[in-house]
Amino acid sequence: MNNKKILVINCGSSSLKYQLFLMPEGINLVKGLIERIGQKDSTIKQEHKDKTIEKKVQVKDHNQAVKVMLEAILNPKDGILKNIKDIDSVAHRVVHGGEKYSEPVIITNEVVNDIENFADLAPLHNPVNLEGIKAAMEQIQSIKHTATFDTSFHQSIPEYAYMYAIPHELYEKFRIRRYGFHGSSHSYVANKALSYCKRAKENTNLITCHLGNGCSITAIAFGKSVDTSMGFTPLEGLVMGTRSGDIDPAIIHYLLDKGYTDKEVIDMLNKKSGLLGVSGLSNDVRDIEKAAKEGNKQAQLALDCFAYRIKKYIGAYSAVMVKVDILVFTGGIGQNSIYMRELIANNLFNIGIHFDKDKNKLIGNHIGIISTDYSPVTVIVIPTDEEKKMAEDSYTLLFQ
Ligand code: ADP
Q: CB within 10 Å: which end of the chain, N or C, has fewer?
């Protein structure tokens, strides 16, 4: 078999996550996280087999973070590789691929320029993704680097579903439309669910719920995304940890009129809303579930708002796809919260979802089916693995 070692890099504004996979088996060889890049107290944590290193390091920017990552991977004592040449390719996560990229690609100068140009659409993400790409291409030369875009899986959404009902010239001038995000996760769990249920994509419709800090839900027919809840930016759609999801846009104007600044309103919608905003407590479902159990009414309200919005989207996507075969839960909340899954999927008999409360408890945070044996819609928990999906993309592009 054509074994390859693929390094996956995922750069956030002040962090760099990495994993090395042995492909095509998808075996994780090492996993690491560099945090607080550009601050005084940067750290690196690296795990492989039973070895964990965790220490403070000086990391002033993403270029230096790539250096620190390579030192850790190649360290003769705690590292995993003897030589940088043992890396066969590098897979990078890029948030926005605009309308141009509907598939993962090998990174060329043209791709670098495009990622730079799409920064206008994802100012918090694309520039920092690009910094990681440039640093890695400089330090890990003579192999190919690939990019997987969060938006590309959703490029199959039909025009009537991605177009906002605003003057068309805004689409023509600024490309304002629904793009959708979390594409790697939705496509990864959909494929896993199909193989778990032994079904072919050609005759299976799925709804995938990615419920993490960010949350989105996608309708998938014939293996292709046909609608998704996040839109022009990741702010639209479901209630999230700190993001509002759907609101009446007139609220923004109303708040500006009341004296709030632009920045305050956008900050509020992105960082102070969602579960945190409604509960007034936390963005973490674990804290909110605990408080609700202890009788905190606002905490219960936050959980109810969260579940209700998802139910509405499940109903809407059932209507647009006519029939649904599989409903998938994934992400930190979807995978771990037994309570939240029940709150969302119980009592949806009218659309063929016969939820099994006992199975739901038994499955806990593992892969498995949580609907009854006779349920027309199979409800299933699938742990997501966006990094593995990126390694698969890189392997398929370069070595298959
Ligand atoms: P990210 O979107 O940052 O990758 P995750 O997918 O890891 O986030 O999801 C993080 C969220 O998962 C936490 O904020 C928390 O609300 C939720 N979560 C994690 N473990 C549990 C648990 N055991 N019960 C309920 N919620 C959980």
A: N
